[in-house]
Amino acid sequence: MENAVIYARYSSVGQNEQSIEGQVRICKEFAESKGFSIVKIYNDKARTGTNDNRPDFQKMITDAESGAFQHILVYKFDRFARNRIDSIMYKARLKKDFGIRVISATEPVSDDEGGEIYEMFLEWNDEKYSQRLAKRIKDGIVTAMKNGTYTGGSKVLYGYKLIDTDKVGKKGTIHKVVIDEEQAEAVKLAFEEFANGTSKKDIIELLNKKGMKYYGRQWKVSTFETMFKNEKYTGEYERLGQKWNNIFPQIINRVIFEKVQKRLESNKHFSGANSAIEPYFLTGKVFCGYCDSMVIAGGGTSHTGKKYYYYECKGKKRKICTKKNEDKNDLELRVTRHVKKFLSDPENARIAAEDTIRHYEQRTGDDGMKSVDTKIQRANEEIEQATNSYMAVRNDLLRLNIEKKMDELEIYLNDLLTEKARLELERGLRVTKEKILGFIADLMRETLRIKNISKK
Predict the structure, then answer these.
(1) pLDDT surpasses 60 at 245
(2) Do residues 149 and 174 make contact, with C-beta atoms less than 8 angstroms apart?
(3) Per-residue pLDDT, 299
(4) Where does 232-317 have alpha helices with state H?
(5) Does residue 212 contact residue 185 with C-beta atoms inside 8 Å?
(6) What is the distance between the alpha carbons of residues 227 and 231, in angstroms, rounded to a whole number?
(7) d(CA 292, CA 288)
(8) Could you tell me which residues come within 8 angstroms of residue 415 by beta carbon, excluding any fewer than 6 positions away?
(9) Which residue, 430, 425, 423, 429, is CA-closest to 372?
(10) CA 411 – CA 16 distance, rounded (Å)
């Protein structure tokens, strides 16, 4: 039996803890059908998929080195990443270095060329959706902020509090930000002391002596890292490319704020260029023409501090090959040009599109829908059995256990109905040759743009 882990994620838009539960439940059922043993579950809550700044995601990538699992299961590919470049990089690294494959429980794809292109097409489609969704959200936020409406969550910036207004929006009563006098006193003291040269540790000691808490807890040095940089305390700040001064009342005047920024700048310690991550787009896709070994990422630093990035034959590292290193940007650009030339041939593009469509038709056929319908029927039967059991028993403890089981079954049933709706929606997607060809054209333009940027 092969081992697998589950990665689940929800952003903050219309999703919550139940979204994680639903994703995990469907992934577990998929694992059972494939004979996979689940060894761990990773989840990131209220985290966007447009970048890789996700704690559990990064832990999962690190844990991949242990060799404890061979598959990563996700509810949909967009849970893994909505950024195509991140998705390609991490999937290639996982496959090349550890033999791990990312599998979608609701979007299974085959290992052939058609399946691979279809998987890329789904990622492309998800990224486009994400971009459209981001624009709609941005437009809504801008409109709200122009009206002076607070657009954050229930926990407001330290130093402020929320009060209800007489206005009602789509999500209920609209709130207004006002100063929390007790917290604001601590904010003023911290800013003024730091601007005058007091150390952060001494500021913490002073605040603690005065009995001032940070959300009911003791102050930490790290607390000031974000507080001292937050322009909202001046009453004016920039967001979405515009200046706003009608949301947060001023607590700190601009002169003190700028003095704090200058001191922060003088205290800053730079970690250096080595902290940057350089993407190697050909990872897992290139083999040495001399010895057939895998070509891997390489790099170094000259005595002057200049960084060099290149691809290196794995055989050369083992001293069984004499292949010279290939400049990273040069090789990637040459490969990009060859791919572009290959797919620019209408016949090659037609074959790729037809292979992809063939895979799509297999995936959205009757067998897939029947499988979901069977699961829905089974879930309804279990709910009916649980209801009958609840009516029959008189023990309060047993009733509580049955109620919990019924709640879980109802969530599971909703997940299945959602899965069926998604499959029906995908059926209605009508993946045509023209759409696939459009995707290929967009992919070539994007790849070339990235390579041109990396050359500069």
Answers:
(1) yes
(2) yes
(3) 83
(4) 254-267, 314-317
(5) yes
(6) 9
(7) 5
(8) 22, 25, 26
(9) 423
(10) 13
